[in-house]
Specification:
This protein is mainly alpha-helical. Helix content is 80%, strand content 4%. The chain is built from 6 helices and 2 strands. A two-stranded antiparallel sheet has the order 1-2. It starts with a helix and ends with a strand. Bound molecules: heme C.
């Protein structure tokens, strides 16, 4: 009767490690989702559809959740800061869109873009196969 016990232990270890750490694959899944929301944001802005801007900005915020820890675990303080900046800007963006404040929408959109770009320049690599990686 050792097996069920073993599975229980393995299951506990697995759920523990999933709860504690965000691995690179999970991070990439979130980045892809953020990229989709960014595409949605550009369309929504062009169409001046503030409800859609707000929805996609919230999608960015949601997907950034937990990713600061990924950088903290790596000891990359700049990554933690870029995550905070991007998260703050995406929240500001949703609020500005909810308020239909075009100037604030523009300002928070560029603050958000700067945080994405800053982190990509510092921590993103692009291989010859066009795939992104970490540095
Ligand atoms: C704190 C760092 C950091 C921030 C902030 C950040 N990114 Fe990234 N992003 C990365 C890294 C590292 C990669 C490369 C590894 C990967 O693909 O997951 C990446 C990859 C991506 C990819 C490619 C995913 C793939 O592999 O196909 C997209 C799209 C993307 N980011 C969009 C964004 C957008 C949009 C923002 C801002 C709203 C943003 N990122 C903010 C670090 C960051």
């Amino acid at each position: 009767m050792k097996r069920p016990f073993l599975f229980a232990v393995l299951g506990a270890i697995l759920s523990l490690s999933l709860g504690l750490a965000l691995d690179e694959q999970e991070f990439t899944t979130k980045m892809k989702a953020i990229g989709d929301h960014m595409g949605g944001l550009k369309k929504a802005l062009a169409a001046k559809d503030m409800a859609a801007v707000s929805m996609h900005a919230k999608g960015v915020t949601d997907n950034l959740k937990g990713t600061g820890k990924f950088w903290k675990d790596k000891g990359a303080d700049d990554g933690v800061k870029f995550t905070k900046d991007a998260s703050k800007a995406s929240k500001d963006l949703a609020k500005a869109a909810d308020d239909s404040n075009a100037d604030e929408v523009k300002a928070s959109m560029s603050a958000m873009g700067a945080a994405c770009k800053g982190c990509h320049e510092a921590h993103r690599t692009k291989g010859p196969d066009g795939k992104y990686g970490f540095k």
